[in-house]
Design brief:
Radius of gyration: 25 Å
Shape: globular
Number of strands: 25
Strand content: 15-25%
Oligomer: single chain
Helix content: 25-40%
């Protein structure tokens, strides 16, 4: 376990844990009984729907919800409220990887292989992820590649994961922020130029290779170096090392693994497509001991999008605009397919529309802290302020909950039954160990009670909900119809797709073909584009954001654990000695970091573990310390993913560091 894991039980008894519903009266949130709170929510929603139609109400979910809650919330939005406006914070996490996998491989399942397979590989190319801090237990699976000198980490910082490449463990590439795509195109160029691709695999298992050849021909290593800053010789060396590990060349196996650092970009889908192309060029996907996969960042980011939280998806990873999909799910739900709404809009666009003409006037939030985790949070705060009704279901008084008109206290992980789907597509049981405190209730109960006020019956029994979800998923890409609580409780490791007629499930995908009509992967030609908010003379420094070991996501829970707060009490801006010298800064000085959208003031940490043209900020803090005051809400045109990972900023010293007492005495 990591530090967040072994301290997670402390959040269950947080001193300010929400234990009773709260309703805003005369500008203050005051305690209320459940019936009073739910009657109020129902009455306000009915009034808003009467005035603005079903599209006057929106729903926002979270990647930490169980499969059962995610499924029920999607059903609640579409059957009870009949609104198309539903999306979730997984849009901020996995949407570019999902879009790229869907258009190239035909299906999005995160890792298409058990995580343990990574440990046997000769080479692991890890692009834009820092699991040694963000998910430390995963780092053990990199030990095999590291022992072979085959761990390749692409990151503008020398993160804890990048440091694993030291002492012969591998190679760290530190590209200019926003140029991961150039690195991937150059690596593929070298494979082609030196005759290292798996030509037979490409001919038998893919389409579109000729188009890809034309696109990568422009990215020879010297040209790539001029854009991404990684030396041409290093690019060649990495490409050859990756090829040597590939099965086609008799190697022991290779994996290409991606993370948020490259995906949270206005061209994130194209960048992931380039990573998949690199893997396909070497014949990795579908071969045991090799492959491609993205690392899911949230506990149930996978299951949430599979079963209905995404704006365009129905359970089973069915597209909501597909008539056959609508017919199937409507039959399970007992409704007319014509009554189901069409596709909604991705999260950033949904937030932009809040409280505007024709946009939603009410928002129900389940498991998300939008005023910390969304990009350009200054604009998000204003959008929430335009609403007629904001209802937040949460376990602690998060920053978003404190803005709400109604706050509903709900159960968390140790207090509920359900399932989660992890980053390798394995369905895991969650078992209730404790009763929720005070009047807190399971969200399935909350949705059941609220739906009943609209005259719709929903179940709050997790097992019943799972069985219905399995039926709704049957025949879809994410088919759970062969999975039951009894099988999970017996200890079976079940990976989707797991249809009733193939109940053994699918631990390793693509061995017999891809999930496309002809069974071939569809290669996509892509090219580099600069970030939407690129550096200028006024803002000459790249900002990258990310996590620290002690905190998670918006920090709403981890900032309530004393041990974690002591270890990481607040954000600091990491910058290089070169940049510090240029700006006249010293370690510990307070600096103002400003973008076109906002600014914040934090201490500086001078470190040689970051590029001279880059500053790093963690995003776990709220209010005037929120890194997302600075980030842009520009989005990827395919996935709707916001460009969290890079924007242009100016860094200025505000005050000198306060000297330590011993320095003053000296």
């Amino acid at each position: 376990m990591c530090q967040k894991g072994w301290s997670s039980a402390e959040v269950l008894a947080a001193p300010d844990r929400l234990t009773t519903p709260l309703v805003r009266r005369d500008g203050r949130l005051v305690p209320a009984a459940w019936d009073e709170a739910l009657d109020h929510v129902h009455a306000r929603l009915e009034a808003i729907r009467a005035e603005h139609g079903a599209e006057g109400v929106a729903v926002f979910g979270g990647g930490g919800l169980t499969n059962e809650k995610a499924y029920t919330l999607g059903k609640f939005a579409r059957v009870v409220l009949r609104t198309p406006y539903i999306d979730y914070n997984g849009r901020f996490c996995m949407s570019s990887a999902a879009a790229a996998a869907n258009r190239t491989l035909g299906v999005d399942r995160g890792l298409a292989f058990p995580l343990g397979d990574l440990g046997d590989a000769d080479v692991v190319l890890l692009v834009g992820s820092n699991p040694a801090e963000t998910m430390p237990p995963l780092a053990q699976h990199l030990a095999g590649a590291r022992a072979q000198g085959g761990l390749v980490v692409v990151d503008p910082r020398r993160s804890a994961t990048a440091r694993l490449t030291a002492d012969g463990g591998g190679v760290h590439l530190a590209p200019v922020p926003g140029t991961d795509l150039v690195v991937l195109l150059a690596l593929t160029h070298v494979l082609v130029d030196e005759g290292l691709v798996d030509a037979d695999y490409l001919a038998a298992r893919t389409t579109g290779w000729e188009d890809v050849l034309a696109s990568i021909s422009r990215w020879w290593p010297e040209r790539a170096e001029a854009v991404c800053g990684v030396p041409a010789d290093t690019l060649r060396r990495v490409a050859r090392r990756l090829a040597a590990a590939a099965p086609v060349h008799g190697g022991g196996g290779a994996y290409v693994v991606t993370g948020r650092g490259m995906e949270q970009s206005a061209h994130g889908t194209d960048t992931v497509s380039a990573a998949i192309t690199l893997a396909l060029a070497l014949g990795l996907p579908g071969r045991r001991g090799s492959g491609y996969g993205p690392l899911t960042g949230q506990g149930n980011g996978q299951g949430g999008r599979e079963h209905g939280l995404k704006s365009d998806q129905l359970p089973g990873y069915r597209h909501i605009a597909d008539p056959a999909a609508r017919e199937h799910v409507a039959r399970v739900w007992g409704v007319d397919p014509q009554d189901l709404p069409g596709p909604g809009v991705p999260a950033v666009e949904l937030l932009r529309r809040l409280g505007t003409g024709g946009g939603p006037r009410a928002l129900l939030v389940h498991g998300a802290n939008l005023v910390v985790s969304a990009p350009n949070v200054g604009a998000v705060r204003k959008a929430l302020g335009r609403l007629d009704l904001l209802v937040v279901s949460d376990v602690v008084p998060s920053e978003t909950a404190m803005l709400a008109d109604v706050v509903l206290p709900v159960a968390q992980w140790a207090e509920e039954e359900g399932t989660m789907t992890n980053l390798e597509g394995r369905v895991i049981r969650r078992r209730r160990a404790l009763d929720p405190p005070g009047d807190a209730r399971d969200e399935l109960w909350v949705m059941r009670e609220l739906a009943a006020r609209f005259g719709v019956e929903l179940s709050d029994d997790a097992r019943e909900v799972f069985d219905e979800m399995a039926r709704a998923s049957a025949g879809g890409k994410a088919d759970y119809s062969g999975i039951t609580y009894d099988r999970l409780d017996a200890g079976e490791a079940l990976y989707w797709p797991c249809p009733a007629d193939r109940p053994e499930g699918t631990p390793r995908m693509f061995q017999d073909g891809f999930a496309t009509p002809d069974g071939r992967a569809r290669l996509v030609a892509v090219d580099h584009r600069a970030p939407a908010d690129d550096v200028t003379g006024e803002r000459p420094v790249h900002l990258v954001t990310g996590r620290v070991l002690q905190h998670y996501q918006s920090g709403a829970q981890t900032r309530r654990v004393e041990e974690l707060v002591e270890a990481a009490p607040g954000p600091v801006a990491e910058l290089s000695p070169v940049l510090a010298d240029t700006l006249g800064l010293e370690d510990g000085d307070r600096v103002r970091v400003s973008s076109a959208r906002g600014s914040l003031t934090v201490p500086a940490r001078v470190t040689d573990a970051i590029r001279p043209d880059t500053v790093f900020l963690p995003f776990h803090w709220a209010g005037e310390l929120s890194a997302n005051l600075l980030t842009t809400d520009a989005t990827d045109p395919v996935s709707g993913m916001p460009e969290f990972k890079v924007c242009a900023v100016r860094v200025e010293r505000v005050a000198r560091a306060v000297p330590a007492p011993e320095e003053v005495l000296a």
